[in-house]
Amino acid sequence: MRRHAVLLVLIPSLAGSLAPGLFAQQKLERRFAVDSNVSIRITNMAGTTRIIGWDRDSIAITGSIAPGASFFGGGKGGFAKLGVERSDETLAAPGSTLEVRVPRGARLAVKSGTASIEATGLTGELQCVSVSGTIQVDGGLRLLVAESMDGNLDVGGPIGVSRITGGRGTVTLRDIRGDILATTVAGPITATRGMVSRAHLETISGAISYEGDVDRRGTLETVTHAGDVTLRLPATIAAEFELQTFEGKIETDLFPKGRVQHRPADGSPWTFATAGGGAQVSVRSFKGTIRVLKQ
Amino acid sequence: MSDLVRRAQDGDEEAFGALYRSHVGRVHALCLRLAGDAQAATELTQDVFVRAWEALPSFRGESALGSWLHRLAMNVFLGSRRARGRREKRVFGTAEPQLLERPTELSPAGAGLDLERAIAGLPEGARMVFVLHDVEGYQHGEIARMAGIAEGTSKAQLFRARRLLREALNR
Amino acid sequence: MTCAELRARLDAYVNGTLSSAETAAFEAHLDTCAACGDFLANAAERPQELNALPRSVEPDADLWPAITGRLAPRRALRRGIPVPAWALAAAAVLLIALSSGATVLLLRSGTHAPVTLSSRLEGVEAEYAAASDDLGRTLEKARARLAPETLATIERNLATIDSALAESRRALAKDPANGVLEQLVVAAWRQKLEFLRRAAALSTET
Fold first, then answer.
1. Domains (ranges, CATH) in chain B?
2. ipTM of predicted complex
3. Closest Cα partner for C1 from C34, C16, C23, C19?
4. Chain C residues with CB inside 8 Å of B46's CB?
């Protein structure tokens, strides 16, 4: 049965103007046609925002809006804007659930406070910012910029270029590729099945763990202040290493005869090469322990 | 802490000059042997005293000034060595540059080489360990920590230095 | 590398003809094998000639004129309890004080003459401190608009950053000639600035 968009738009705004709580969570359903590389801006401060890439040239939104909040949205061609507006922006106010289907190649900018953001099936660009909402991304994006001051970030690749900024939440990177910059303040960064050409992982007090390989001509840099760094690399990796910790220690088992420990003073770097060199791996820490181990 | 040091800490350049004159010989000797040539040693010595002026306010007299200067000289030397090492490393694409060092061609002349010249002729890594261990009296553990090398490397380089020196001195 | 292999390669090591992998293995063996360590120590002795080596060697020319030209002028410190150089080093010191759950950024100017810990670092620190101050003011103004939970998040992250910065600076004060530590201090400042930018962006967006 065809629903009239106009009628549906009325209901949320009615809810906004009548006493809050008069209506329970309102069901939402909207759809409009757009270009396949449309730019979309989505705002939902609390609750859940789920974005799913699909093969149609249209945006379809379903969900439920919290009492006291209102949905807004519209657009056509190359630009669309949608989201939830609340009169009560305190965190106690209930959040809304938005499930948005978008053309796979869309360019998205998503904003959140405590709302969690989930994105799957996208191949275009995604930029998302939250204060404490978790961010979870899966798929083959060309570009990902994800930032959360407190929330956990979970990113599954392969992604062409990633810029991930955390605060105290954990950053988990799976199947990462290409060019990646991941920074946190206190949250640990854990990367598995990596194959990077250019990676910079940085944290102040979190731990960094990278398991994977580095492109023959690539670079992997990790920087921490207090966090330990553990790299698990292929035993046959051909790379130049520059490992530097000021108050910590360095351990590696890449050398022919087992594990070697090294305790430099004054932060001078320990440099060595394996298999004639190639990739460049550098680790710098103030007091973290550095481990460079075979997988 | 001597009055001279206190005045130098307060900014009295003349007092610092007096300190310079008392200590330059010792500092320069260390720089000469670490650097391996007179020109580099001269620049290094100047750098050391300029750094000493900047860092002097943090000296609280827990050790003798001479030891403090000594330590500073080594840091300045090691710092410049690290900076150089990073540049050279890219070219060779291998581990520390000293691994590629060959002993300098020593003159075949009959008379035994002057010891200072023989030390200067050592490959850089071996020379550094030799000076720190056999001339300045540090242990391998300390050398490893200061220079950022493994203790095994320190022992190996010392052996290398002593052997090469012996060959040079026996000619 | 085994002990036997090491002992078969002494000459090659001395002459620098081992491959870089073998050289690394040679040296690594000595990290753990005391027997070979002793063997090497005995195989080549400290040259006796060293006893005649002078402890002091005056440079050929007087270096003082060149040195004096490079010394930054310094005015007298307050006498009394020795104050660590880092406390006086920067012309402006940035403090984070947590009061009544709100983040307050204070900029305090040193009242004594700046001590040159390293004139280059002092300059860099002053720049970072000034930029941090600007961002701090932006944050201050937006404070009322931020949810208390958001403020708390910002505070907690900033506390982690500041503690790392203070630690790096303390280490540098103990070893002021250390270029690596200097780099770490500058990196810590950069991280702080980056974070303040994020926090300020957050506060102006909403």
1. 1-93 (1.10.1740.10), 94-171 (1.10.10.10)
2. 0.77
3. C23
4. 63, 66-67, 70
